[in-house]
Design a protein that fits this description.
The chain has about 70 residues and is mainly alpha-helical. Helix content is about 65%, strand content about 0%. It has one domain.
Length: about 70
């Protein structure tokens, strides 16, 4: 609800985005996401670790454009 209010997005939209983030991270909840982040962060405030994690684990979808 806080994220929804702060971003002016519908609650269901925020839930969908959070669900997709957790799925890509391979976690089920915020506690697991924080734990995973803490395991991966390094001395650069976690920026390198997150980028490194994204490059190893990101799932990219391709979209088709129609003319």
């Amino acid at each position: 609800l806080e994220i929804s209010s702060a971003t002016h997005l519908a609650v269901d939209t925020v839930k969908t985005h959070i669900h997709n983030i957790f799925r890509k991270m391979g976690v089920r909840n915020r506690a697991q996401a924080v734990s995973l982040y803490n395991k991966k962060k390094d001395d650069s405030n976690g920026v390198y670790a997150v980028r490194h994690w994204e490059s190893e684990n990101s799932v990219r979808r391709t979209s088709k454009t129609t003319k």
